[in-house]
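Chapter summary example.
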Amino acid sequence: MAADNIRDRYQAAGHDHLFTFWSTLEESERKSLSRQLENLDVNRVNRIYKKAIASEKEAADPEPIEPLPVGACESVVNDPASEKRWRSEGLQAIAHGEVGVLLMAGGQGTRLGSSAPKGCYDIGLPSHKSLFQYQAERIARLQVVAEKECNKPAGSVVMPWYVMTSGPTRRETEEFFTKNNFFGLSSKNVVFFEQGTLPCLTAEGKIMLESTSRVAVAPDGNGGLYAATRAPLSESNNSTVLSDLTDRGVLYVHAYCVDNCLVKVADPVFLGYCISKQADCAAKVVPKASPSESVGVVARRGEKFSVVEYSEISKEQAELRNSKTGELAFNAANIANHFYTTSYLKSVESFEDDLAFHIARKKIPTVDLKTGEAVKPSKPNGMKLELFVFDVFPFTKRFAVLEVARNEEFSPLKNAPGTGADDPETSRRDLLAQHKRFLEKAGAQVNDGVEIELSPCVSYAGEGLEFVKGKTFTRSGYVENPEELDALL
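The structure predicted for these 489 residues follows.
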């Protein structure tokens, strides 16, 4: 598009100030700015701003929040019969090629003291495997389990893995996968795509410049995954995640965040539960650790399902208990672990304009529009707009919630080493404790102080370990193949 046409479009939308320094720019800078502006839907930006401001005002008088109604949430805890039934149904879907996996992996390990993508992080296991490798190997193992239990030929079951990166992490993520030979998966079944960005705005909704020739942008939140599934995979590939899901015949998608070392990738129990409920969208939750835990909970806002942030719940509400069960009334802690049907993901575009982006007021480096000089603000001077992955919940007609055991499925990696909570040490501790439970449940004894790491290639969730019954493990170590366990007796 010619520069004049782009300028006319931005002038009509109220953003002609972006061309303030046009006459002073080098030709290469003009091309760069034109390209950035051409790829931006300025009218969508205006709509998002207006909706966000209106929503923020409405939030001052929010709808009442209520706990999940009876029957809205089922649990796998202490219900082995249901768990077995759901697992079987989920494995059938996997075996028939109906399941895909979507990983939200756009973040960097900044809090962990690393500039690398968070999925590259080594939490200090004996194997020194990264989070990416653990999740890849869980996919590989689950494909084998589905083949064996559903009588499918070896190598015939495939779960495509859609890895959502961000601008700063995409290249390094792709290089990490390539260097590690995709951790044993076929590269054609690992699809990288990129989380979107939105311009930073002034309080009046004007798009900000980062420099005289570049718009200031920021990631659009993990809820940007919905728009990202519709965007071309790259400049040279016009396919999208949604078109790829359709081409492969994938009906169901499991989505999760990279920073949970216990995540059951494509959990057949969760899949089977959601399929049996005919859910369009669903959330996996864990019981809150305490009334004051700083975590959002799945609840009802008015007549609709929603995630209610901990800051929105009063102390009295947080401590409220169910009179029959004794459990916290607001107990369903959200862990960013979701199910979707492919048709539901396609439908999000139809109500996307109704989704309200959240405003984060930040200090945003910019330029003085009068002088062109760089400005490094000492206080918030603009806003970043974010959508959260759970913002679609209120628009879901058939929504389901499944509670799982926290110690089996949730150990987030959020904080720097040595913090004492949600850090690399707690992640390592929780994963190795789970592997000990796997062995003990299979009938083995693990002596005190012995730490055994089981590769996901050995067992996805404790299955396939019957041969350890009656054995006592006295030595610590890492096991990549079942036969290696005998060396730890």
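To summarize the output: The mean pLDDT is 95.
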